[in-house]
C-alpha cells in the first residue's frame, strides 16, 4: 500500500514538473519580449528596482510551505537565466 | 506607446510569477507528503535515480526558449529546497 501511495504522489509530482517547465518557458518568452521592447527604446535590460519589486511580491504572495527566502533564491536563478536569454537575443540581433 | 507595451508585458510577467509561486509551493507540499511516506517506510529521502528521471523528463518536455541545461539547473535548486523541507519535517517529527 505504501508503494502505491508513493507512486501516486510521484505521478502528481511529475505533472507539476511538466506544468513548471511550461510556465517557466512561458515566463522566458515574456522576458524575451520585454528585452526586445527595451532594446528598441535603448533601455538597460537589467533593472534592479523592478527585480526588487518582484521579490517583494513573492513575499506578499507566499503561503508556504517554502520559506520566502527559498522562493526568492529560486526566482533569482530564473531572473539570471532570463537576463542571459535577453542578452543572447541582443547579440544575435546585432549579428543580423 | 513603448511604455504601455512594457507595462502590459510586466503585468503578464507578474501574473506568471504569482502562478509560479503557487505551483512551486504545490510541488513542495507533494514532496512533503512523499517525505512522510518514505519516513514511514524507512526509505532514504534522497533518491538520485528518481532525480535523474525527473531531469530526463524535463529534457523530453522542453520546447524552449530556455535551454534544457538552464531548466535543469533551476529544477536542481527546487529539488535541493524540497529535500531540505523533508529533512526539517523529519527533525520536527523526531522532536514530538
Automatic annotation (TrEMBL), chains A, B:
Instruction: Tell me which stretches of the chain form a coiled coil.
Output: 6-33
Q: Which intervals hold domain Chorismate mutase?
A: 1-90
* Protein name (record): 3-deoxy-D-arabinoheptulosonate-7-phosphate synthase /chorismate mutase
